[in-house]
């Protein structure tokens, strides 16, 4: 049985926009809201070069990666042809204007993937 965690209100996610959910380890999870108020959750990493999908443009039920414009389907995490690959997707529930994520998935999916880090090099570059 799944344990669900309330992460935000629907209104906290801009229409055709995103919001990030921090986790204790691993990359963040990106929440996306479409124009018809559907909400999706994907690992905040493009399968191509690890770009932050939460910073991409949401259109229809897809997001364009801000780095190289790969189109990722929000319902599956799959890159659209001719590109190939996918990012992890998370289960989402929307109840009474509240967005819920599956706690088991938050605690287990994608933890082995190194988060993208911006800033100066900490080792010899």
Defining traits:
125 residues; mainly beta; Rieske Iron-sulfur Protein; four-stranded antiparallel β-sheet; three-stranded antiparallel β-sheet; globular
Task: Briefly summarize what is shown.
The chain contains 1 helix and 10 strands.
Tally of discrete structural domains? 1
Helix content: under 10%
**Helix/strand structural class:** mainly beta
* β-strand number: 10
CATH topology: Rieske Iron-sulfur Protein
Give the N-to-C terminal Cα separation: 46 Å
Q: Strand order of the main beta sheet, please?
A: 2-3-4-8
Question: What is the quaternary state of this protein?
Answer: single chain
Strand content: 25-35%
Describe what this molecule looks like in 3D.
The chain is mainly β and 125 residues long. It has one domain: Rieske [2Fe-2S] iron-sulphur domain (Rieske Iron-sulfur Protein), CATH 2.102.10. It has one helix and ten strands, in the order E-E-E-E-E-E-E-E-E-E-H. Strands 2-3-4-8 form a four-stranded antiparallel sheet, with no helix packed on it. Strands 1-10-9 form a three-stranded antiparallel sheet. Strands 5-6-7 form a three-stranded antiparallel sheet, with no helix packed on it. A hairpin with a 7-residue loop joins strand 2 and strand 3. The longest helix is centred in the last third of the chain and has 6 residues, at 103-108. The mean pLDDT is 92.
């Amino acid at each position: 049985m799944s344990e669900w965690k309330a992460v935000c209100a629907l209104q906290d996610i801009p229409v055709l926009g995103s919001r990030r959910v921090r986790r204790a380890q691993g990359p963040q999870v990106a929440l996306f809201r479409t124009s018809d108020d559907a909400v999706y959750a994907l690992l905040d990493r493009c399968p191509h070069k690890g770009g932050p999908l939460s910073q991409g443009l949401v259109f229809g039920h897809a997001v364009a990666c801000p780095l190289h414009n790969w189109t990722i389907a929000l319902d599956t995490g799959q890159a659209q042809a001719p590109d190939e690959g996918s990012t992890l997707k998370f289960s989402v529930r929307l109840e009474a204007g509240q967005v819920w994520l599956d706690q088991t998935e938050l605690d287990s999916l994608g933890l082995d993937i190194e988060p993208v880090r911006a800033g100066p090099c900490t080792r010899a570059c």
